[in-house]
Amino acid sequence: MERTVVATGPEETQRVGEQLASRLVDGDVVALVGELGAGKTTFVQGLARGLFIKEEVLSPSFVLARTHEGRLTLHHMDAYRISDPEEFTEVGLTELLPPERGVTAVEWADRIPQLIPPGALWVTLTMPTFDRRRIEIRGGRTGR
Ligand SMILES: Nc1ncnc2c1ncn2[C@@H]1O[C@H](COP(=O)(O)OP(=O)(O)OP(=O)(O)O)[C@@H](O)[C@H]1O
Ligand SMILES: [Mg+2]
After folding, report:
1. CA-CA distance, 24 to 27, in Å (whole number)?
2. pTM of the model
3. Ligand 1: which of 33, 42, 63, 81 to mutate, judged by most atoms within 8 Å of the beta carbon?
């Protein structure tokens, strides 16, 4: 998949995530990249909405991972506080990369590149202006 859109406002960022959610299947990994405040969590909130998750999706920075149930289970992880990928391995989080069941969204995926499986969807967010986000989606398993 290869798609680039410019989202004006958080609601649009969520809508792009929501659209991607409809195409996700068990075992998918969504690897999010973008500086502080780029909109990674906002995008995952859209994914959650698209997966019919009712629970509120918050930043998992302090807990490393949260799980939400919807059309598919969403594992939401954050590698921001990770200084060494070993930490992810030690707490068993590599089991979710990829997950056997459900999908995994990882914020700051570029901090643990060696743990992101081939076939992951890479979502890169940049801020061309304070009120806009450029969202580039690429990768995914072949044939989709
Ligand atoms: N398209 C957009 N235009 C303007 N603001 C946006 C857009 N998308 C998201 N935002 C806003 O950007 C701010 C940061 O969003 P968010 O918390 O999702 O970023 P993040 O990348 O997860 O940050 P962190 O690095 O701290 O985890 C929020 O106030 C959010 O509403
Ligand atoms: Mg975040």
Report:
1. 9
2. 0.96
3. 42
Specify whether the CB–CB gap between 105 and 32 falls below 8 A.
yes
Q: Using alpha carbons only, give the angle 103, 16, 67 rounded to the nearest 5 degrees.
A: 30
For residue 39 and ligand 1, the question of a CB distance below 6 A is answered with: yes
- Alpha-carbon Rg for the chain, nearest whole angstrom, is 14
Task: Answer whether 131 contacts ligand 1 (Cβ < 6 A).
Answer: yes
Tokens of 71: 């059309």
Q: Look at residues 49, 42, 48 and name the one whose alpha carbon lies nearest to residue 66.
A: 48
Amino acid type, 65: A
Cβ(95) – ligand 1 distance below 6 Å: no
What is the tens place of the pLDDT at every residue in 45-103? 999 999 999 999 998 777 788 999 999 999 999 999 888 888 888 888 889 999 999 99
Domain borders along the chain are 2-139
pLDDT digits (tens, 9 = 90+) for 90-135: 888 889 999 999 999 999 999 999 999 999 999 999 999 999 999 9
CATH T-level fold of 2-139: Rossmann fold (3.40.50)
